[in-house]
Structures are given as structure tokens and as C-alpha cells.
Amino acid sequence: xxxxxxxxxxxLKSIKRAPLPYALTILILSVGLGVFFANATFYYxxxxxxxxxxxxxxxxxxxxxxxxxxxxxxPPRVLSYSNVQKLSNSGIPSAQAAMYSSAGYARLTLENLPxxxxxxxxxxxxxxxxxxxxxxxxxxxxxxxxxQVLVTKATALSLFxxxxxxxxxxLLDDITFSVIGVxxxxxxxxxxxxxxxxxxxxxxxxxxxxxxxxYDLNYLSNTNSVSYDDxxxxxxxxxxxxxxxxxxxxxxxxxTPADQQRYQQFMLRLAEDEKSAGRHPAPINNQLVPxxxxxxxxxxxxxxxxxxxxxxLLFLVVCLLNAIHLALxxxxxxxxxxxxRRALGASRSQLQLQMLADVLLMTIFSLAGALLIAYAGVVxxxxxxxxxxxxxxxxxxxxxxxxxxxxxxxYIVTLYPSLRASFGSLNQQLKE
Amino acid sequence: xxxLTNLSKIFRTELIETHAxxxxxxxxxxxxxxxxxxxxxxxxxxxxxxxxxxxxxxEGDYLLDGKSVNGLPDSELSKLRxxxxxxxxxxxxxxxxxxxxxxxxxxxxxxxLKAKERKDRIESxxxxxxxxxxxxxxxxxxxxxxxxxxxxxxxxAGQPRILLADEPTGNLDxxxxxxxxxxxxxxxxxxxxxxxxxxxxxxARRASRNIQIVDGQLHDSTLYEPLASQxx
Lengths: 432, 232
Ligand SMILES: Nc1ncnc2c1ncn2[C@@H]1O[C@H](COP(=O)(O)OP(=O)(O)O)[C@@H](O)[C@H]1O
Ligand SMILES: [Mg+2]
Hints:
The complex is a heterodimer of chains A (about 425) and B (about 230). With about 425 residues, chain A is of the alpha+beta class. Chain A has two domains: about 1-50 and about 300-430, no CATH class; about 65-285, no CATH class. Chain A is built from 14 helices and twelve strands. In chain A, strand 7 (about 170) and strand 8 (about 175-185) form a beta hairpin. In chain B, about 35% of the residues lie in helices and about 25% in strands. Chain B is globular and about 50 Å long. Chains A and B meet through helix 1, helix 11, helix 12 and helix 14 of A and helix 1, helix 2 and helix 3 of B.
């Protein structure tokens, strides 16, 4: 240990000898690693499992029960109200909820200025299914069509200045709602329940209201809504429930593989029944996608991200090559000292330990630089792509992976040059 | 303690082959002070480097204490250099931003000695070369002669049995050169075998044995009488 500290001191001395090339090496490495880290954060977040305990139980059913004739087509990504009702009658899932996102303006009284809020219109099982923590109050009862909302802690704080606001009223687009619950801090990342949206890394909604209320008050979906007949999507309150207006994301919780089998059977029978009733002109195509595969299934968003990941990886390689080149010059100009150390009895393995000290210092410096640049990069990405607003928190697994990346890169940058220097001919340098 | 038999060394580049040493036979006994002389390019440094295992050879054999160094792994060779052999170079080869103390410590570090043991050895080496007061100086703050004495202290701090010196006074004026020579003689008296390359006939004469190299070949070594009896 004492000897390794000595090696560290020797490394620092040789850095001081030529600080500028060293700083340049660190800078290049930091930029390469920083860009890579920022992208890795993004990628990691998008591919992490937000509900590790139950992600094998949550499924997203889709069916082609539409008045639409086509061959080889996939079922629509969203369901109509009537299809949700038909699917909801299976009795198989332990929880199920349909949902869509919308937007509105909230204020406490007509004298206040309204603030824009994002809304999730959904059913009561949503909160249990996605493990939403409730700080105060409760969820509405099943099938509620009342003017009730749950608000996030942040929304409660910004509207009321406090969190315990159960029983208070708010004006949502100037209609009175009563607050029946307040959510605790909740960050589901990625936000996979918004299955077909391309914003799995953005903030969740501010306010949650019952599905029936959303339809009754004509809150329009701000993501995907497709009409397969002449239903006017703007007339949600009057036409939305009956027609073939598809706009609902629907999730079911199926606790066992047997339940999953039964549910698929149920969907098949439903489609067959619909077909014989003449309401399913296209060939039957049902899908039951596990939540863990939902990003892949709706894949187009992550395609860009994969391409971007490849670019940042190539950029890192270019930075590495440049850093190696600089390091090689540095080591070769120090080669005389390597030879001297060998002449005084340092073995190759002792020189390799010296090299490890170099690696350690380079890891520390380039990691610090890379984290700074990555942090700036994440902030920049959030600003450029607000719909993908990343949360810049790095968890332990990611930090460890990043440290390993910096270590490996520093090792690569040091390995070849120092091997070159320590295997050089011994007598030449010592003569002059 | 050193035996070379039919040793040859060839430097090959794309264009030419240089026969730096041809069929060298040499026997050096414990405690000898050998002076190597010869024209520039005759192979003196090459011989010293081979003796110090800094360089390999092409033919023949090199026995150190009866054991062939041929084919020894790097770990064994570096142990030899570290414990049995001390080097002194014409250009001192001190590390510029290491203090005198840290320079002398270098070989002891690679030997894995405890801090106390290292300190004792450095102190006595500093005392021998008379530079205790300068231990925290940088090499550039010393005169050439003092720097070479630091290099000698570094070479003997590990208490080697062989000291290899390649023109140790080549960069020094005559006064400083004399001090360095006296130091080497003192070290030799304490039992350390010394092989020294020199251009100075006076210095060569002070050695116990004189070997001339011409064109990579050793010329019959002559055992000189000690200076005192020669002048008598
Ligand atoms: N690394 C080397 N590569 C090629 N030739 C060398 C090398 N080292 C020495 N030589 C050649 O070997 C011969 C002996 O060199 P050297 O031992 O340095 O001579 P001296 O020290 O007696 O002046 C010279 O001709 C020199 O040019
Ligand atoms: Mg020479």
C-alpha cells in the first residue's frame, strides 16, 4: 500500500512535468466519456424496469375489433370505449384500467389566473396497478363519474401552498372539482403506462380524474385518437362511448401464466363472437404485449435513440484514439526514465504497477470531467427535447457502470503507450 | 565472479551489421578494480551493458557467480540489477524533479525494503559521498561532481557487489574527477568489484587491472603494479 502511494506520487510528478499535454488528454477523454455518459443515462432510463416486482404481470391488450376491413393489419394501438367495456367483462385480471392523457387549466377561484395542467383521465385500478403512492385521501370508487380529482403533491403545493388538501375544491376549466386525494412524490421511469406515447421519460400528469367524468366533460385526448366510423372525436360526451372512436390505452394485471392463457382465450372468443355478429370484418389479430416489451413493440422512438447511441460510441472511440496518441507521445518522451528505472532494478511488473497508478489518476480526473460534461449534456437534452425531460439522477448501478467505463478507457489509453515505453531498448536512452 | 566465454554481440539494422563485441573472454575476480579503455565505438559501453544485463548477447556465455544469466526471466534479471549490480553513467541520469534523497531511494523502492531500512541505507550512502546536508536539494542545485556523487550514492545504496561505471568522470573537470575517483577507490577497498570505462590513462593506471578494447576485441589484460611501487 505504502508502495502504491509512492507510485501515485511518482505519477503526479510526471504529470506536473508536462501538465498541458496531460490536461489535453484528460479533456479529450472527458468529452468522449461525457457525451457517452449522457446518452447512456438516457438509454438506461428508457430501458430500465420501473416496476421490477410486477412487470411480468402487466399486459397491454389490443384487438382488431373495428368496423374496418383490412388484411394483414395490426390492431390499433388504442381501444374504443365499447371495446374496453367488452374486455373489462372477462373477470380474469386482478386489476384493469383504461386511460388517456389530456390537458386543462386549473385555479382555485375565478379571481386567480389559471395555470395549465396536464391530466390523466383513468380508472381507479390505475393507482394500484402502477403502485402510485397516495399521501392523503383515497382513490375514487369504481366507475365514478363525479367531479373528483387526485392531484400530485407538487400541484397541491403550487395551488394551495400545502399538501393536505383533501376535501378542498379546485376549478378545472372553471368547473368545480373536489380533491379526494393527494399523491406522494412519484416518478415512474420510464413511464411505460403511456404505452403508445413517445414520451416515456417525461413528467407524469399533474391531475388525475375519472374516465367517465373525462368523457362526460368532453376532455379530448391529446395523444392518439382514431375514428373507424363517422364518430366525431370532438363530441366525446355524446358520441365517444358508442362509436368506433379509438383513444384508450388499456392495461390488465394477469398474475399467473394460467391467467394470461385464459385471457388470450377470452380475447380470441370475443373476437370470434364479434366476427359472427358481423362487427369484425378483418382477420382476427389480437395482441397481449407484456409491459417489458412495450417499448420494443412501439419501437420507432427507440430506433432514433439506438442510432444516437451508436454515434456517441463512435465518438468515444475517436476520442480514445486521440487520447492514446497524446499519451504515447507523453510516455515516449519519458522513456528515458523507464529505462533508468529498469537499469536500477525495476521489473516489468513493477513498472506495470506504476502504470496502474497512472490509470487510477487518469480515471479519477477523466471521470470528474466526464460527469460534469454528462450533467451539462443531460441538462441540454432536457432543454432541447422537453417531451423527454430526463431526470438527471444517476442511481448506483449506473454510476458503477460509468466508473467502469472511465476505468476501462483510462486503462486502454495507458496500456499501449506504457508497454511501448517499458519494452524499449534499455541502453540507448541512458547514454545521452 | 564474472566469467565471459566467447561472447559476441551484433547490432543489426536494416542496412548494416555491427560486430560490437567479438569472441570476448574475460574473468573478473571479487574485489578487482578493472579499467576498460579503448577508442570510441570500440564496444566498451556495450560490454558494460551486457555485464549489467541491460542488454543481451548473441553468442557465448556469461556466468555471474557461476550461474549463467542467459535465458533468465525478466523478474530474475531485474533482481540481479537491483541487488548485485550498481550503475554509474557518464551523464549521471538523476531524475530532475526528484530530490537527492528520492533519487537515492529509487533502487531501494524496487527492492521492497521497509521505510526504516531504506532511510538507514540512504543516510549512510549520503554520508559516504559527503552530501548529507544536501538531501533535499534538486539535482540542478548541485555541481556536476556533486551530482555524480549522488549517482554513486544511488548505485551503492543497495550494497551491490559489482559497480559498473561508464565514463563516470567524462563530464567532470579534473578536480571533481579526482574526488570521484577517490570515492570509487574507497568503495573498492570496502570489497566492491568495480569495472570502469575511462579515457584517462592516469585513472586507468590507478586501477588494479587494465583492459583495452579495440574493435570489439579484448587485448591482453595487464596487471599494473600499484602506482607507488611503479614510480619507485
Ligand atoms: N543500439 C545500437 N544499435 C546499433 N548499433 C549500436 C548500438 N549500440 C552501439 N552500437 C554500435 O556498436 C559499436 C560499439 O558501441 P559502444 O559500445 O557504444 O562503443 P564505446 O562505448 O566503446 O564508444 C559502435 O559501432 C556503435 O555504433
Ligand atoms: Mg560508450
